[in-house]
Design a protein that fits this description.
RNA-binding; OB fold (Dihydrolipoamide Acetyltransferase, E2P); alpha+beta; Gyrase A, domain 2; five-stranded mixed β-barrel; 29% helix; 16 helices
RNA sequence: GGGGACGUGGUGCAGCGGUUAGCAUGCCGGUCUGUCACACCGGUGGUCGCGGGUUCGAGUCCCGUCGUCCCCGCCA
């Protein structure tokens, strides 16, 4: 070893020890008669001062930030007036009697000692320097700890970690596949997994009973702050379980991570909302719930309303809903309400009605509908000083628009608590959805999800009414995990394929192996997959999953450090029997 | 596929039609023996992303293009 200690571990009781350290030069503070050198590595920072030694002084003069050096010396207590309490090694320093330069460094093009400045473009190009920043070091280290804690939990609970192939088969449904040409079978392609969904089900059929994998997944879709073309899932599958068993296991995992890594103990069970409740109360299937302000039905107050635009909406089968703004309604100026109005109009609503309960109940429709304000205040239980925002429209549009407005208003009023752990399950998703573009039913979760047995009996001919045994875990307004109980009978599986317009032939061609496997004894099974990057992002309070990934890509899918994607030599294409269409290759 | 923001010394920003493009930081040199974003003094450093247009005159206005970021669509 080139070192006896790392840069973060020396303490007051190490005083007097002879040590050898290695690391990067963080800063040199040259006071003329004395030079302080700050040495860093991933463990921390330690101050080095030269001993009474001309050779050391000479080497020290040559050093610049980011040089990699090795320092031998003695640990000494800092003078009382120079003790620092904000870093763990702040009570000591190393008196160097030897400094060796292991590697020189050019002046870095971006700062490595501070956070939150450089453009992402440069950060990504010089990722190795960006990753030296304290915040990035912290994020990557925490990610490791979170992943290991997850493994620990799953191992304790009898799960087997099993790898599945990256070279898979392209399947219909879902996201666009990344494909990989096959040299040995020219003209044919593998697909990179969007998730190991089918294989984990096959592993259940194979009898492995409890499986997990930190699985890399690939989806060739447009990027977002929380979406990368390749990302990691904590993929879990269990046999002989029912919905609540999977939910409890996953909930246990989240609680375990929060307790072990973040020292936050959650005793209560996570809330559970049905999809329908979520949509009616929050207008979204991934709601933020901790600040309240749920959407309320107001239709009964407006049955004989003289307000024409509301009457018109109700006659067309629409409804009227709103939410309480619990305080500070006097700060809702005309201008502010106008901007909210504009926002909901862009989301498809006609406008916005405001109610204030500041001095006395007042609202924007008082003149047309005298007395309505008091009724609303009473019905919605608007506290003194508060108010409400109300709108009318077609139910789905109304829910969505008010749901977005609700979060915006809460944000503007500072009601969103960044330290809150807002965790809940959404259950009872619809099994199918109508896809206008493709003019057919599609599976809302995926086609291997078990339809709700009650609904199968109750509405065998009305698939849109059928719920599924799917569930999502929502954390601080993000979907962080989703899963379902799977179908374990060939007949039911074929029925689902039929409903979503996959023919017998197609089903056999694309999923034949699963259908065949299902003939050989399938345990009832189900599972869940966590978006690991998102989970870590939220836990570390980051705004983008790029901040918790070592080598993320840009919004156009480029790796700025490697320069991927890139052209490949013609020879390579020839070997693969691939011809690139004209005008598509850049120089 | 669509909408929006940004692009100016190495880095982060200012300049919004008119002399020589400014500030901070970095970098280089100097002074300084307890600093900790050391301080102070001096200096270096920019064809204003690229192309075209408008104008007597463009970093500034217009069009296009490239890049980065955010959002909608898309992401079972």
């Amino acid at each position: 070893m080139l070192r006896t200690h790392n840069c973060g571990e020396l303490r007051i009781n190490d005083v007097g020890k002879k040590v050898t350290l290695a690391g990067w030069v963080d800063k040199i503070r040259d006071l003329g008669g004395i030079r302080f050198l700050i040495l860093k590595d991933r463990y921390g920072y330690i101050q080095v001062v030269p001993g009474d030694n001309e050779k050391v002084a000479e080497t020290l003069r040559k050093l610049k930030p980011e040089y990699v050096i090795r320092v031998s010396g003695t640990v000494r207590k800092r003078p009382d007036e120079a003790v620092r309490t904000d870093i763990p090694t702040g009570q000591v320093e190393v008196v160097a009697d030897e400094i060796e330069i292991l590697s020189e460094a050019q002046t870095p093009p971006i700062y490595t000692d501070r956070d939150d400045d450089t453009s992402e473009e440069l950060r990504l190009k010089y990722r190795y320097l960006d990753l030296r920043k304290p915040r990035m070091q912290h994020n990557i280290i925490m990610r490791h700890r979170i992943v290991q804690t997850i493994r620990e939990y799953l191992n304790k609970n009898g799960f087997l970690e099993i790898e599945t192939p990256m070279l898979m088969k392209s399947t219909p449904e879902g996201a666009r596949d990344f494909i990989v040409p096959s040299r040995l079978r020219p003209g044919k392609f593998y697909a990179l997994p969007q998730s190991p969904q089918l294989l984990k089900q096959i592993l259940m059929i194979a009898g492995f009973d409890r499986y997990y994998q930190i699985a890399r997944c690939f989806r060739d879709e447009d990027l977002r702050a929380d979406r990368q073309p390749e990302f990691s899932q904590i993929d879990i599958e269990m046999s002989f379980v029912e919905r609540d068993d999977v939910i409890e296991m996953a909930e246990g995992l989240v609680k375990y991570v929060l307790e072990k890594v973040f020292n936050r103990k959650l005793d209560k069970q996570f809330k559970r909302l049905t999809y329908e409740e979520a949509m009616e109360k929050y207008g979204t299937d991934k709601p933020l719930t901790h600040f309240g302000m749920e959407l309320q039905e107001l239709e009964e107050l407006f049955y004989d309303t003289p307000v024409n635009f509301i009457k018109a909406v109700l006659e067309k089968g629409g409804t009227i809903k709103g939410f309480v703004v619990p305080r500070d309604m006097s700060s809702f100026t005309r201008k502010r309400i106008d901007s909210y109005t504009k926002m909901v109009q862009e989301l498809g609503l006609g406008g916005l009605i405001w109610v204030k309960n500041v001095d006395e109940p007042r609202s924007s429709i008082d003149r047309i509908s005298p007395g309505i304000s008091s009724k609303i205040v009473e019905h919605m239980k608007i506290p003194k000083g508060g108010g409400a925002l109300i709108a009318a429209g077609e139910r789905e549009v109304l829910n969505e628009a008010l749901g977005i407005l609700r979060v915006k208003v809460a944000q503007d009023m500072g009601m969103i608590d960044a330290d809150e752990l807002d965790l809940l399950w959404i259950i009872d998703f619809p099994m199918f959805e109508w896809d206008d573009e493709e003019n057919r039913l599609v599976a809302r979760h995926h086609p291997f999800t078990m339809p709700h047995p009650e609904d199968m009996k109750a509405y065998p001919d009305d698939p849109l009414k059928i719920r599924s045994l799917a569930y999502d875990l929502v954390m601080n307004g993000n979907e962080i995990a989703g899963g379902s109980i799977r179908i374990h009978s060939t007949e039911l599986q074929r029925w689902v394929f039929e409903k979503i317009g996959i023919t017998e032939n197609e089903a056999n061609e694309k999923f034949g192996f699963l259908l065949e496997a299902m003939r050989y004894g399938v345990p009832p099974h189900g599972g869940i997959a966590f978006g690991l990057d998102r989970f870590v992002m939220i836990l570390l309070k980051e705004k983008s999953i790029r901040e918790v990934m070592a080598f993320p890509k840009t919004t156009t899918g480029a790796d700025l450090m490697m320069g991927a994607p890139s052209n490949v030599p013609d020879e390579m294409l020839k070997e693969l029997k691939i011809r690139v269409m004209e005008n598509t290759r850049e120089v």
